[in-house]
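I'll show an entry:

:::
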Amino acid sequence: MKHIVLFLSLLTCFFIGRSQPNMNQLMQQEKVRSYMGKKLPSVNQFTLDGGIYNAAKPNGKPTLINFWFIHCKPCVDEMPYLNELKKKYEDRVNFVSMTFENEQNLKIFLKTQEFNFTHISTDTNYINEVGVRFFPTNVLLDKNGIVKVVTNGIPNYKDKHGNTLLNIGVEKFEAYINQVLK
């Protein structure tokens, strides 16, 4: 009898585990991915320096939008790599960061952390409308504002020992940028 109960318990755990999506499946179902091949919602937003930005109306250049927040360690960890991409492509690509952090906290944070993008302190309504649920999320738009790539951060690759090879992820993301520049 004990063996039957144990077997049924294991079988139940197996099917419950199989029916619940893992983190990768949840990220793939994120609403922001439904914009692939389409424009993001059109909303005028103020940049930290007083300009106006609208993701649906690019200025004829591809745009990288980074969705992040201050207390997100992976968000902060990828900032130096994003800064490198901006330095390399700044004359050919728009680089925009969007966060739900309030403007005052964002300004304080940027005094101690270099992040050379155009910053938008937006309310959560736009981030919710776009459907970003995992941070960081990078959305790459072509010069017409069409979503071409959505990644949850710069893609990470691991070596056989489980060490993150972020430089390979940066190279992969750079390949995405080069694709939209063609």
